[in-house]
Amino acid sequence: MRRAVLATCWVLLGAVSVAALTALPNVCKTSVVTESGKKYRLAANASTVHWGYFFESLKPRLVIPSGSEVTVEMITHHAGDDPDKMIKGDPGVEDIYKWGASMNIPTRGASGQGDGVHVLTGPIYVCDAEPGDVLQIQILELVPRKNPRTGKAYGSNAAAWWGYQFRTPFKTGKAREVTTIYEVVEDADGAVYALPDYQFTYGNTTAYKGPLTASCVPKSGSIPDSNVKVPWAQNNKFAPNYDIPCVNGRQQFTGYAYPGVLTQHPTGTEDYSIRGKFVVPANLHIGNIGLAPKFKPAEAVNSIPPLPTGGNMDNRRIGKGATLYLPVQVAGGLLSMGDAHIAQGDSEFDGTGIETSITGRFKVTLHKKAKLPKTLRGLNFPLLENKNEWHIHGYAYGNYLTELNPPGQVFAKGASLDKAFEGVYRNARDWLMSAWDLSEDQAISLLTVACDFNVHQVVDGNWGLGVSIPKYVFRVGDKKRYKPAVICGSSTPV
Q1: What is the C-alpha to C-alpha distance for residues 203 and 24, in angstroms, rounded to an integer?
Q2: pLDDT for the residue 200
Q3: Which range is the signal sequence, renumbered to this chain (predicted)?
Q4: Best CA proximity match to 72, nearest among 178, 176, 143, 1
Q5: Is residue 15, in this structure, part of any structural domain at all?
């Protein structure tokens, strides 16, 4: 009953208002949300997702107290790469991707309206969360979403123009964008794998349906660079430095313009020769999970570059068994998540992982600023913990919203492994000194002899690295032999 009342009050909220946001703390005091430890569910549909941005003024789709368990459905923004396998027959996904006669814009989706890339479910308002607090998100379970029509789950790996491979010449033929569709399978022992099904190439005339080029991007449109209120100074742009010619009132996308566009099969380029060539062990994880950042003036922020509050970290370790700690910058925290992957290697080299719709189960706990443990004091970056290690995140720009003016420069200036390495080193050094009382020289030595640095992603504008710090190193006097507690490169317990 409590969940039913909650859904009636908050799941179907529309446009934001100051009065409504001000009333949220009072809602948290009612019997609807005062009992911690309750279980909630946030289904994904056109009214519960937002395309491609974090926004402190976005109305919550769910309100929960600290200590709650919540199940969240996450829909991939690459479902359009094979609509028949990943959209058709799944009502929630169909609702997100549907088109109507009034949607006269060259973008995608019922709630997209030109906003951005990732389909993010939320936001979730956590009662009593205030700036300076830390939100703890334990990932209890991640399950691939099967299409109810077929009983199967599929994912897509798009080797697209933003991938690192486009920074160097191709060995065979000209540069090209190729998408690989994977089927998600489970063996008799319950192990999950991804099997490559087929590939296809973008750039031919049959790749996109007519409604997707119904009109041209308007001058001063709202398709965002760093936030949705930035006016465009030129026609034909849907993203910085990317012009699509407007001919007779239409734009024809000749390549992988951006995720979310529906591909019409057959494209004439389908290649099934990849079948049986290899198998990919699953490592289900969440590519984009974060809180709304505080941005002055209050504006929506692009979901592509990662932030101190999380977001598009694309870290394969953010999976089952992991606990994520995020600094709160706005009232309620406003937690959103999406961009889930069946698997991805460190770096997300070609532009994406195996992008798949996944349902997750989480426990959300609030840590108040006045009572933070030493490991969380002064936290200004996403901190990950699993059974085996602490994992520090760092980026080329720790907070590009405040370090760059305009913030949209991050897509050029943030593409730097040197800067990202400096960022993660500073975060790890400072955390070791604060949380474990090490001197700077002691921290430098420990990072060198016992810790592993990892390249999370080189495709998200603000490039990201991480460093894994084994918990065992702090068990001074423990004579038990060290044994890894998680599968290497993940948070999955051994």
Answers
A1: 48
A2: 93
A3: 1-20
A4: 143
A5: yes
